[in-house]
Design brief:
Belongs to the diphosphomevalonate decarboxylase family. With 315 residues, the protein is of the alpha+beta class. Helices cover 35% and strands 24% of the residues. It is built from eight helices and 13 strands.
């Protein structure tokens, strides 16, 4: 039995990044990570059961070819849930964030698809099981099952049943994230191939799991104590360390554009003037700014057109 279903999942921004897999099939990470979910920014997914041999995948109002990379990924993911081959879906995916620009739309996409499949097939699975399933679509999707701060425990098991997101019992009113769009075009090297290349070719990557473990404790402390500068420093250094491993890969992986560097320098200048402003970046040219509500107007003066999100509301 299957029914129509519609679900939303938020995008998430990692403050300690997931970079490197110990199992590429199951998306099991080499390190734990920690993110914050973006409230209303994310993906709406609608599933409609259809007669046919193949799924129909629509992205932001446009039907994709069945052979398109995204369609194949979506169909392969639905295969995990499909009990017989005649069960197909029309999948309507709508992102309110730029797709594939390093804004983790694959995370919200697979999380929303998992939630919608859970409804359409009346599976009634608990959140941790849903997080494990979403992880198999895209690693970072396991964090988008939850609101607020989320830890992805890396787990030890080979079957991955202990590798999923867990929401932190913490709130931080006034915590702001600003999205600086440098380039919304689809990135040339996706995260999956990027991290594989880094793990295989960058000697520098050896230090990454240690960096990530240390940053996880610092972030947990920062969140518990609402220590914004500790959080910002840790997140920024974590992101730049990840990018250092990418640059040290061969062939080199540099996701930055001149405008990315210009934005970083602007952040450093403002910080030198006393503003509590930090950034993080994923596998793309865009920056995500971290700041507090009381500094929002100043930040907006320097970064006009900034899309801002307050995941825990204002103070
Ligand atoms: C840099 O979750 O997109 O954004 O598991 O291969 O689908 P796959 O990778 P993905 O990687 C995200 C990498 C990152 C850091 C992060 O979000 O933790």
């Amino acid at each position: 039995a299957s029914a129509s279903a519609e679900q939303f999942a938020p995008s998430n921004i990692a403050l300690c990044k997931y970079w490197g897999k110990r199992d590429a099939e199951l998306n099991l990470p080499i390190n734990a990570s920690l993110s914050v979910s973006l409230d209303y920014l994310g993906t709406h997914t609608r599933l409609i059961p259809i007669e046919g041999q193949v799924d129909e995948v629509w992205l932001n109002g446009q039907q994709l070819q069945p052979g398109a990379r995204f369609s194949r990924k979506v169909s392969a993911f639905i295969d995990l849930f499909r009990r017989d081959q005649t069960l197909c879906f029309k999948v309507e995916t709508r992102n309110n964030i730029p797709t594939a620009a390093g804004l983790a739309s694959s995370a919200s996409g697979f999380a929303a698809l998992t939630l919608a499949l859970n409804d359409a097939l009346a599976l009634d699975l608990p959140p941790e099981a849903l997080s494990i399933l979403a992880r198999m679509g895209s690693g970072s999707a396991c964090r988008s099952l939850f609101e607020g701060f989320v830890e992805w425990r890396m787990g030890q098991r080979e079957d991955g049943l202990d590798s999923h997101g867990i929401p932190l019992d913490a709130s931080w009113p006034g915590f702001c994230i600003g999205l600086v769009e440098v380039d919304a075009a689809e990135k040339a090297v996706d995260s999956r191939s990027g991290m594989q290349r880094t793990v295989e070719t960058a000697h520098l990557y050896q230090s990454w799991p240690l960096q990530a473990a240390a940053d996880m404790s610092k972030l947990q402390q920062a969140i518990q104590e609402r220590d914004f500068s500790l959080l910002g420093q840790t997140a920024e250094q974590n992101a730049l360390s990840m990018h250092a491993t990418m640059i040290a890969s061969w062939p080199p992986l540099l996701y930055w554009q001149p405008d990315s560097v210009a934005a970083m320098q602007k952040v450093w200048q403002l910080r030198a003037q006393g503003l509590e402003l930090y950034f993080t970046m994923d596998a793309g040219p865009n920056l995500k700014l971290l700041f507090q509500r009381q500094d929002r107007d100043v930040v907006l003066q320097h970064f006009p057109n900034l899309e801002t999100v307050e995941p825990f509301g204002s103070e």
